[in-house]
Give the backbone structure.
Amino acid sequence: MNHETPSVVVRDLVKQFGNFVAVDHVSFEAHPGEIFGFLGPNGSGKSTTIRMLCGLLRPTAGQALIAGHDVALEPETVRQSIGYMSQKFSLYNDLTVIENIRFFAGMYEVPPAILQERIPWVLDMAGLNGRELALTGTLAGGWKQRLALGCAVLHRPPILFLDEPTSGVDPISRRRFWDLIHQLADEGVTVFVTTHYMDEAEYCDRLIMIHQGKIVASGSPMELKQQAMSGELLLLECEPLGPALDLLRTTPDVWDAAVFGNALHLVVPQAETAIATLRLLLSARGFTVRRIGPIPSSLEDVFVALTSKRGQSAKEEL
Amino acid sequence: MRWHRLAALVRKEVTQIRRDSRSLLIVVAMPVLLMLAFGYGVSFDIKHIPVCVFDREGSQQSQDFLKHFQASEYFNVVKTVNTFPAMIHAIDANECRLALVIPHDYSLKIRTGGPVSVQALLDATDNNTANVSISYSEAIVQAYSQQLQLEWLNRQGQFMTQPTLSVDVRTWFNEDLESVANIVPGVVAIVMAVIGSFLTSLTIAREWERGTMEQLISTPVTSLEVMIGKLVPYFLIGMLDTGLCAGIGVWWFHVPFRGQWSVFLISSALFLMVVLSLGYVISVLAKSQLAASQAALIATFLPAFLLSGFIYPIDQMPTVIQLITHIIPARYFMTITRDVFLKGTSIPLLLDDLIALAVFAVVLTVIATRSFKKKLT
């Protein structure tokens, strides 16, 4: 754990839309150089939280200090020290690459002399050298994302908020994008990333799992896996899949069962004994067991474990 | 307010306008089209009213009388009929607006000095044309009647050198009584109202629709900077369009410009501030380009067209409507443009209208500044 002054402090942040509580008493701290992941399904409150931290939405209650400034009281000071990339691509499609860069440099008052150095840096980073004069609307998804990131960091903000930055981008571009994020974090930038790609969450230093507006778990990816999954994880391939799921969900020794691709993931108290009993049980009921064995848990399993009913008890053990 | 940011905003807005062919079309073609459409299309002049003639006598005297109608530029004898039903048909078929029936004993009665009545049948579906036809034909008949009387008196050996009472008419400011002179300065106001509010009504709504607003408001730019950055380019365009319209009026339609350009420019600038701010507020509220542009047209074009005195003189309106016109900024600008163009009125006499316009400009600019919040909803 980093013990420098936290760059972001969030205390009991709440956002209500009418009767709907989108964000429910969320609290956390983030430190310089940390990649901080917000993990959760669509509509879980990730974007709403990020938008409150950027001063785009007024919190219903609670407090957010960004680089030491209260977002609600000094939104403009906060905006100078953050970069934001929204979920939907939101640069100007009818401006060229260089015009977008110059425009956002203008918004952040990047001095012309410094901008002269940063323009090549951004173009390099986004891999857009030679395409400065292309209309932004004509660029492919991955290039657009990197340009958006470039425009968000032109003023070298100490804190960066990225809302689902890689949605709709091909895997190679995603990989490249994460390299950039790591590079920025190495330079000391606090990076907030929301994602619903569980594999991306593994790139983060610290994670918050958010479900229905509440934090259900937080920690490093490894910590989460160890702590949340107090049981062990089994992979089961068998025929027919649906009835097997129904059966296993009512079996007392199986804490959780979920479909994963064309197989099932099961959470059990102890792997070896469970494999033996389940083999017997399934063949007795006429199922064909192709494969059953322990697997290391992925964050997706952790998330399922934490948000399912039986997972609630696992969370209480944290 | 930071000049660096403001300059970047203005540059971006200008680039976007330049790249958007629809915007360019609106900026350049719309004023020209509107000027030509109104300049040629809207005319309150009533001339060459089609006339049908039923001369039941067919004498030299009756034809002499009809020649006076034919000679007038207000009438055009388009048809001569020989039966009453044919005449009715001509009216029914919209071949004429006025039908004249000359009685069979016309010349006899003229000779004996007895009163003669010439019948005039009018198609009064268009009451305005009918009214004008009545006045014009009465004037022609009266002049002709006077001429006959004088001739008759002369034959009796009496001389009357001149009529006893006459009106000596001088028309000022629009000497030829041409409606184009009245319309063109008004069209300048209408074009400005439409272009000004229409263009700005799209600017904020477009950013919301395209999602670019979210990025923009995450930067430290202030609401005031956004507003000024948006309005400055359109203000300049609006002033150029104003000059274009005025130029078309003066050089194409030959409408006199007797006032001072400075007065015209000052009042145009104030009026532009009003309509640009109005369009901006609408854009902030609407958040969709379609809704915003329609609202802007209804909020500016209709009042400017109907309630500013452009078509209907304000002093002829019912009292309640007259009161309502006071909250229509176009009303003041309409008065100023017409007076500046035709009368050459200078500032002191236009002070009330200028002050009213300035008040509207200030109030709407303040509302516009306050309307935009850097928040998502």
The CA atoms of residues 15 and 60 of chain A lie 5 Å apart. Chain A touches chain B through 33 residues (CB under 8 Å). Chain A has two domains: 8-219, 226-316.
